[in-house]
Amino acid sequence: MKEDFLHYIWKFQNFNTVELVGTKGEQITVKSIGVHNQDAGPDFLNARVIINDREWAGNVEIHIKSSDWFAHKHEVDTNYESVILHVVHEYDQPIQLKDGTEIPTLELKSIIPKTAIENYTTLLKETDWLACRNSIAGIDSFTLNNWIDRLLFERLEAKLKPINEILKQLNGDWESVFYIWLAKYFGFKVNSDPFFQLAINIPFQLYSKYDQSIQIQALLFGQAGLLSKEFNDDYPTLLKKEYTYLKAKHNLFEMDGSNWKFLRLRPANFPTIRLSQFASLVFQHKKMFSLILEAKSISDLIHLLDAKSNEYWESHFLFDKASKPNRFTQLGISGKRILIINAIVPVLFAYGRETGNEELVNRAVQFLEQLESEKNTIVTHFEKNGVKVNNAYSSQALIQLSTLYCKNKNCLNCAIGNKIIRS
After folding, report:
1. Close Cβ partners of 25 (under 8 Å, ≥ 6 residues apart)
2. Among 55, 274, 295, 318, fewest CB within 10 Å belongs to which?
3. 221: closest CA among 275, 262, 263?
4. Per-residue pLDDT, 2
5. What's 341's DSSP letter?
6. Residue 117: exposed, middle, or buried by beta-carbon count in 10 A (0-12, 13-18, 19+)?
7. Residue 135 lies in a domain
8. Would 62 be classed as within a structural domain?
């Protein structure tokens, strides 16, 4: 038994609330459970209960045993002087306030449905991260769909804070914000952090000063710290020459090239290939976010993300090391979908919220509805256990569910877990 479970039981009044009787025979009627307090102090604030025909307004404290009041040192904390009802699983000791008044106590042990305890215990004992894997397929569509909706918006809103922090640092420059956020996801998880740092390391406005693709490539590869040695091939030699000039002109400081990860990556995902594709995209669209705002369909976004590596990379994955012909110089459709889901949609959503443009907020959500579901271990595991994943809207919601609820065994705050416990 955990206190969190008792909080859940009280919050949803998941017990027989008719003719409640306190440990001293008091007649208790709950008019308002109060507001669940996530900070220090009593567990539920501003509750209203009737005890023996007298209505009380105050706070409710919840414990496994009533003696936990002393174990938690509440007797010396003035915040607990306003407690009007002590709710416990087991009553093992009377509790008095400083003036000697005994706090009315409601014992739940005999009135909590046994099935609720059994269902909750089953979820806690499950070793799979999807604790409800044996039950989730039976959850009614109304509950599941409503929870999916809430999770999707919860995920998008969680990204508002970091995006708005970048916006503040850049004095409201949305083009620069989008450029940085796009770079973050161009690294495709493994190289996300160095790509993010690289974008911060090259002011977006700097690109507008140059109208040749080789200069953009030199800026990116040079600032990435990948042009620090001598080369044999003409292409990297030219890049290094260009970067040496640009570095001196703009007083630039490159990153440590060792930050980039190549190990256990498919060559097509090497940062060299991704950097070249990113350079192509930056060169083509100096005002890309403005074009995003005008895009009305997924096909518009797919077209905007057309990016091909320099022809050098058709026969190389690394500088000075020739390879078999590379068919992956063009950013593929799966990569474009990932960028739409993780870069375009969150920034479009954030821009819509920041400017009060609900049409853009809705469009961002609609883009997810129109995109195919992601294919990863989380989505596959939900599908394996009977959850239908229709599109990226669903897969993003399920990733949120897995990350914030399932893997933390946070079943009590999950609509699916609630349904299973109360079934």
Report:
1. none
2. 55
3. 275
4. 87
5. I
6. middle
7. no
8. yes
Give the end of a domain, one of 370, 395, 416.
370
pLDDT value, residue 268: 87
- The domain containing residue 207 runs over which residues? 156-370
pLDDT digits (tens, 9 = 90+) for 370-403: 999 999 999 999 999 999 999 999 999 999 999 9
* Same domain for 166 and 92: no
Q: What is the pTM of this model?
A: 0.87
Alpha carbons 242 and 264: distance in angstroms, whole number: 31
Q: Which of 76, 94, 112 is the last residue of a domain?
A: 112
Q: Each residue of 246-265: pLDDT tens digit? A: 999 999 999 999 999 998 89
Condensed to tens digits (0 to 9), the pLDDT of residues 144-154 reads 999 999 999 99
In 3D space, the residue among 377, 364, 383, 369 whose CA is nearest the CA of residue 403 turns out to be 377
Instruction: Single out the residue of 45, 33, 9 nearest to residue 412, CA to CA.
Output: 9
Number of domains forming the structure of the chain: 2
According to DSSP, the residues that pair with 57 across neighbouring strands are 48
> Has residue 332 been placed in a domain?
yes
Residues shown for the chain: 423
Q: Report residue 80 as tokens.
A: 């607990």
Q: Are residues 342 and 245 in the same domain?
A: yes
Antiparallel, parallel or unpaired: β 83-90 and 54-65: parallel
Q: Are residues 164 and 253 in the same domain?
A: yes
Residue 297 has pLDDT above 90, yes or no: yes
Position 277 scores a pLDDT of 96
* Amino acid, res. 166: I
User: Could you count the other beta carbons within 10 Å of the beta carbon of residue 297?
Assistant: 12
